[in-house]
Design a protein that fits this description.
alpha/beta, globular, 408 residues, NADPH-cytochrome p450 Reductase, Chain A, domain 3, binds flavin-adenine dinucleotide, single chain, 35% helix
Length: 408
């Protein structure tokens, strides 16, 4: 067992507010109350952190294992919250743009005195810019014409356009000298918030750790290299042994069937694979007799087939009844998981008729909708019914908790 075994309570930032703790613990459900929360996280360590994608991939997806203290428990379907820090370069750039050194003293959200550098690194969201921040910033310089055109209900679209691809450093660079007292930043910037990651392990197999599957976000906009706050932290500054504050977050709306014999269909392209690795490990550990079918998709088989060896091993072991993959860039016509569902519509419907549970995890913007459309088609075709009938069928599945989604 690794880890210091203590909640991080080095100052009031992490002190529990009772109402928040109760709310959090109420959400975790009976018998699953968590000792550590977002306001009082566990001081975990990174045990393992490696790249899952191969060289040449357009994606950078990592497998990260974090140590747990004895007594910390999770169930497949749960998530782990990670409390990130802003990277030093981003903090330095913000300080330069603001014209401060970083050793100035400020009071944090709980009135604890810290340096401005620490505030920008651990307390304030200096990543993706929001319209709210522009509005608060503009209040500090009401006569600045360039800022005036970005505030108020009439300028919403213009402000959104300005925010796209920009961070606080861009605002402070474009409109310098506005923040005359570093304490004002606590009104301008939102709090640095934890990021959630679907757990990709079964505790029956890994009793002392929690695994995650993290896509590292990197991009360039407006002449600057950017990265996601938490995924960048895990990607660049979280080698083995690095301290990482975490908390476990229960999700009772994404659970394996209680009946171990029920068939399960899982659709998890990209990092959507995460909870299904957990589901499959759990079912394998339990020796659950129910059949398992996984649809996985990514760009290229050679570089992006996450957990390929483990999944193929599960096929050989008979744990995975079917493994259907869709690698969109491996052929001229793009192929996605929803296409594979359509190709296998008849058998998908047969499984549903046998009581299969249908799970979807991953991208909420397009994939989840396209998969639902393919599923409705499969139901309509299989039942010789209409799409209205298919919608009713799916609504019944939802009521029976046989259609569950974890999309973000
Ligand atoms: C329940 C749940 C489970 C999740 N599970 C996982 C998981 O298993 N694996 C996983 O990787 N993530 C998962 N996520 C997402 C994760 O929580 C983070 O949102 C994600 O890692 C990004 O966080 P970040 O701090 O790295 O990026 P942030 O600092 O939050 O930045 C992300 C923002 O950057 C901007 N951006 C990104 N790319 C570009 C671009 N090319 N051009 C311009 N702007 C851009 C977008 O505005 C985007 O919203 C999950 C989320 C939830 C809610």
């Amino acid at each position: 067992m690794t880890g210091s075994g203590n909640a991080i309570c080095r100052d009031a930032f992490y002190h529990r507010e009772m109402s928040e703790v109760l709310e959090q613990e109420a959400k975790t459900g009976a018998g699953h109350a968590q000792k550590y929360t977002r306001n009082s996280p566990y001081a975990s360590n990174v045990n393992v952190n490696y790249l899952l994608t191969a060289e040449g991939s357009e994606k950078e997806t990592r497998h990260v294992e974090l140590a747990l203290e004895e007594g910390m428990t999770y169930t497949p379907g749960d998530a782990v919250g990670i409390i990130p820090e802003n990277r030093a370069e981003a903090v330095d750039d913000a300080l330069k743009a603001l014209g401060y050194k970083g050793d100035e003293r400020v009071l944090d959200h709980y009135k604890v005195e810290i340096s401005l550098e620490e505030a920008l690194r651990t307390r304030l969201g200096i990543g993706k810019l929001s319209r709210g921040s522009i509005g608060q910033y503009a209040k500090l310089a009401p006569n600045l014409d360039g800022l005036k055109v970005l505030i108020g209900p009439d300028n919403r679209a213009r402000a959104e356009e300005y925010c796209w691809g920009r961070e606080f450093v861009d605002l402070a660079t474009d409109f310098p000298g506005v923040v005359t007292d570093p304490q004002q930043l606590f009104n301008v910037l939102q709090r640095l918030t934890p990021r959630m990651y679907s757990i990709s392990s079964s505790q029956k197999v890994h009793p002392d750790s929690v695994h995650t599957t993290v896509r590292v976000i990197r991009y360039e906009t407006h002449g600057r290299d950017r990265q996601g706050v938490a995924s960048g932290h895990l990607g660049d500054r979280a080698g083995e042994g690095t301290a990482m504050p975490i908390f476990l977050h229960s999700n009772n709306n994404f659970r394996l069937p209680e009946e171990a014999s029920a068939p399960v269909i899982m659709v998890g392209p990209g990092t959507g694979i995460a909870p299904f690795r957990a589901f499959l490990e759990e079912r394998q550990a339990d020796g659950a007799p129910g059949e398992n079918w996984l649809f996985f998709g990514e760009q290229r088989e050679k570089m992006d087939f996450l957990y390929k060896d483990q999944l193929q091993g599960m096929v050989k072991a008979g744990v995975l009844t079917h493994l259907h993959t869709a690698f969109s860039r491996d052929q001229h016509n793009k192929v996605y998981v929803q296409d594979r569902i359509q190709e296998n519509a008849k058998e998908v419907f047969e499984w549903l008729e046998r009581g299969a549970y249908f799970y979807v995890c991953g991208d909420a913007t397009r994939m989840a909708k396209d998969v639902e459309t393919a599923l409705l088609d499969a139901i309509a075709k299989g039942s010789n019914g209409t799409l209205e009938h298919a919608a009713e069928y799916l609504a019944t599945m939802k009521k029976q908790k046989r259609y569950q989604r974890d999309v973000y």
